Amino acid sequence: MTNPTRPRRVVVLASGAGSTLRAVLEAAADEAYGARVVAVITDQDDAGALEIAHAAGLATAVVKMADFPDRATWDQALARAIGSFDPDLVLLAGFMRIVGAPSLERFGGRMVNTHPALLPAYPGAHAVRDALAGGAKVTGCTVIIVDAGVDTGPIVAQAPVEVAADDDEATLHERIKTVERRLVADTVGRMAREGWTVSGRTVRIGTPTSQEDS
User: Fold this and answer.
1) How many whole angstroms separate alpha carbon 160 and alpha carbon 155?
2) Which of 19, 38, 99, 187 has a 20 to 30 A CA-CA distance from 110?
3) Which residues are annotated binding-site positions for (6R)-10-formyltetrahydrofolate?
């Protein structure tokens, strides 16, 4: 992907309070950021991210699993909702659903997610708990390109967080989230400004070299 001539259009998928969305919006207030959030999609009527989106004057859509007869139909509806906003980049920011084939087929290589561990260590829903149980001295957070697996996509960026001797799951997770929000906002901005390429398991931010283009 080459460098943009206009701000990248970012669609954010969120299920919760929207703290990562807020971090990206704050970063994007700088005209030099290179991206702007154009819409927020959630699978929950009461997601705090919707309030943040409305306050910012953003378009929103709610695509609830319960409104569809089966998972396949919901997958198709989600892909249509994302596509209606013509995104350059799709950011999963606390989106608590696995994205299905229709979205991956349309937006593959342009969807990024975040995870509270240094992947490939501690994938899955209990990454912070697992890091503590495993006796990790350092954990962190990872931004990945979304693929068909669970936390298996190519790694875009990572940041470490030390595990304190008195940490429990709540205190460690809170420190990770603070670093994670900053990492996501910085990474989205870099991808928007500099472009990115995905080759197998390797993600490079920046204009591809002539060798990569060939």
Assistant:
1) 14
2) 19
3) 71, 96-99, 113
